[in-house]
Design goal:
Structural class: mainly alpha
Number of helices: 6
Distance between the termini: 34 Å
Order of helices and strands: HHHHHH
Radius of gyration: 18 Å
Number of strands: 0
Helix content: 55-70%
Strand content: under 5%
């Protein structure tokens, strides 16, 4: 049994200053992860429920939610492009972007993807999309975010540390 001062594997992963996952996992970019989880959720739904929506569909709630997620993500992307810093998570950042949606959370593009996935689940009546969205958060949070944060700390040092101390990871 672990002593009081030892961290559980989950806490060690969450508090790691540098990524502890194999670098080959970083080659699978977050949009690819989101697409794969979406397809998996849709296929699983088709196998379990066919084309029915057991909890109903809500196009009126789902479509605006998807559009809100897309808008949030596009707003974040636009701030990256305006700052002339690369968007891919494995690229070397050239500018610390802390305005626009980055004032509210450090990962607005990922948050936008999650909101779009949940909106699709509502609109299509696919409850497995909620599980897919949670898995996306878990995968990105365990694989990509630690790498990105370590890279930001190496590149921007105290500026990033101050920013991270004042802005939440998600919202």
């Amino acid at each position: 049994m672990a002593g009081a001062t030892e961290l559980s594997p989950v806490r060690a992963l969450a508090s790691a200053a540098t990524p502890i996952v194999p670098s080959r996992w970083l080659r699978v970019r977050p949009p690819t992860v989101a697409r794969a989880l979406t397809v998996l959720a849709l296929l699983l739904h088709a196998v379990v429920f066919g084309f029915t929506a057991p909890l109903g569909r809500s196009i009126a709630a789902g479509v605006p939610m998807m559009l809100a997620g897309l808008a949030w993500m596009a707003w974040a992307w636009w701030h990256f492009r305006r700052a002339e810093t690369p968007v891919p998570p494995t690229a070397q950042p050239t500018m610390l972007v802390d305005d626009g949606p980055y004032r509210f959370g450090r990962n607005p593009m990922y948050l936008g993807v999650v909101v779009m996935m949940l909106g699709l689940g509502l609109a299509a009546g696919v409850p497995f999309m909620a599980i897919a969205a949670l898995n996306f958060v878990a995968i990105v949070g365990a694989v990509h975010v630690p790498h990105e944060e370590a890279q930001m700390r190496r590149t921007f040092g105290g500026w990033y540390s101050d920013y991270a101390a004042g802005v939440r990871r998600w919202l």
